[in-house]
Amino acid sequence: MTIPFDRLKAFIQEALTRLGLPDHDAATVATLMAEADLQGSDGHGVSRLPQYARRIKAGGFNVRPDIRVVQEHASTALVNGDNGMGHLIMKRAAEIAIEKARTTGIAWVNSQFSNHAGPASLYATMPLKHDMIGLYFAVGNANHLPPWGGLDLLLSTNPIAVAIPSGDEKPIVLDMATTVAAYGKVKTKALRGEMMPEGWMIDREGKPLTDPKRAEEGMLLPLGGMEAGYKGYGLAVIIGLLAGTLGGAAMGSDVIDFNHDDDSVTNTGQAIAAINVAAFGDIAVFKAAVDALVRDLRGSARMPGVERIFVPGERSQQTREARARDGIPIAPALMRGLDQVADELGMTRLG
User: Fold this and answer.
1) Confidence at 188, pLDDT banded by 50, 70, 90
2) How would DSSP label each residue in 210-236?
3) pLDDT at 182 > cutoff 90
4) DSSP string computed for 261-325
5) What does the alpha-carbon distance between residue 116 and residue 269 come to, in Å, rounded to a whole number?
6) Per-residue model confidence as pLDDT tens digits over 212-237
7) At what angle do helices 5-18 and 332-345 cross, to 10 degrees?
8) Domains in the chain: how many in total?
9) Residue 191: which pLDDT band, with cuts at 50, 70 and 90?
């Protein structure tokens, strides 16, 4: 079944309002969640609503948080999210970073006592409309990655996103986990009844694990896979220190697995930076140079069998355009979960 964007957003907003979020906050979170589905980040959009509903009912989220700055300098800030929904906290953090970068040229904002906030690119792209580069880092909400060569799950997917403004071309947007696949993709495969490709996960004996319903028996592989996974492992450590430890948030063994714990405070850490292009030169010249690079990359010689060379962000943009036109696909298993949420809250079902 496919659902129009506006209908999906309205459904999420009504559910969150009935769960206790103020109208404005419910609208903000619903928009960001539906935007995640629109761009193809299916593991971070409406699929999370049943889980969010459980956590709210169990007291795991503060539905009326006092989101506030607790440390501040000219170009930096630390935001305490008061255990609110991560979408609200990171939108506020992005707004603070953008405002500071207008004056200082570059700004960095960390969050503490935040929560899962959806795909990283939602926040990295917020500075784009202000002719700024955006960077986003996060500590994932469950550990599925051991140190390189180890067995103890001490690290998460710890994503990074970077968004760079352009002129006539679409912005360059990189959004990636430090594992071969984000855990949200594993959950999406399970919802769709699909198997995972080899190379996403291994079991505790190092053998490929392809059944997403057995994911808890194994571990994600870091970027680089079996041959060069030490690179992804190292990147996960660094991003975790920047997004978590630097801001007094959870990292390593302190991370709460919010997939199995609905009531504990996760103290999720995220960071966002905004770089004002104007601080380094003429904005139009920079954008023209980005456009030229995009065209060089896209027009470069291709290997046999390759129809097109993509730059980061193009596939998501194509998905956004297709889903805005045709609707957002909802897998049957997910629809059953959303129907249950609707029934419990006394709402009209999404379908």
Assistant:
1) confident
2) --GGGGGGEEEPBTTHHHHHHHHHHHH
3) no
4) -SSS---EEEEEEEEEGGGTS-HHHHHHHHHHHHHHHHHS---TT------TTHHHHHHHHHHHH
5) 9
6) 999 989 999 999 998 999 999 999 99
7) 40
8) 1
9) confident
| Kind and range of the H or E run holding 100 | helix 86-104
List all residues 6 or more positions away from 2 whose beta carbon is below 8 Å from its beta carbon: 326, 327, 328, 329, 330
3 state SS of 251: coil
For residue 289, give the amino acid letter: A
* The two structure tokens encoding residue 212: 């997403």
> How big is the chain, counted in residues?
351
The structure tokens listed for 64 are 């009326």
Q: Containing domain of residue 261, as a range?
A: 66-279
Predicted structure pTM score: 0.94
Find out whether 162 and 171 touch, Cβ atoms under 8 Å.
Answer: no
Q: Kindly report the CATH number assigned to the domain that includes residue 103.
A: 3.30.1370.60
Q: Would 33 be classed as within a structural domain?
A: no
